[in-house]
Please model this.
Amino acid sequence: MVLQLPHSGSPPKPPSWDSKSWTGFNTSPARGVLNGTDVFVLAIELGSPAALIGTRFTSVFAICEQCARTGDLSAGWTILDPTSHIYRRDRYSACPTLRYFNGYFYLVTLYEGVPNPKGAHCNSDSSTWDQCLAEHIVRSKDLMVWEESPYGGNQTILMGLPDGKDLSGPDHRIIPGSLLDQFGTPAEKNYTQSQTDDINRSDMDMVTLASGETYVVWLSGNQGVGSGGNPAGGASVAGMVKGTEQEWLESYFE
Model:
């Protein structure tokens, strides 16, 4: 897949969100119907330009009609007006995951600044992050007007909060028979089981299995800033949902 983002300045330089250029990060495609037309939609995480995105990060969208006809996603993409087709400008909302079911586009993004009622710093030993980073869900029929879940509104969290310093939680668990269990080094296993500055549950993706269950993956960790004696980093984590992707996502709006 190739998509040329607009360019309005010099090439990106670290930190990329300060650049005048458009800088894209995570993306997620989904096939659906937009304005009566069968299309593929691509959610694009942007880190700049600030005048467009507001608080970094945000999601804008591109569509491809010919992709839906041919199944070839390598060309034919057009960016929708990012001043109207956007989520959202007023807070950190990163790592989009997009799905389409029954007339709605479901968008899962990473929120920053999510409080943990169990304790400060996301109930962890982090000295960098005051609160958690966790996944939020919304939906839209047109990628312009977004509907919040009636169960938590703007604060609805998918998949729960990071484990923090609770070493009994899923972010610290090594699944028997997993790649980490079979092939991980002692250092990797020790890191997974003993990290106490876990403030992050991000970059989720999912797939429905033949059994009707949904396999979900995400990243734990400290967003690359170690504290409390923990090294910088994180781990890939997996879990199962008792139901299909569609059933799971729609349940937040029933």
Summary: The chain has a mean pLDDT of 90. The radius of gyration is 19 Å.
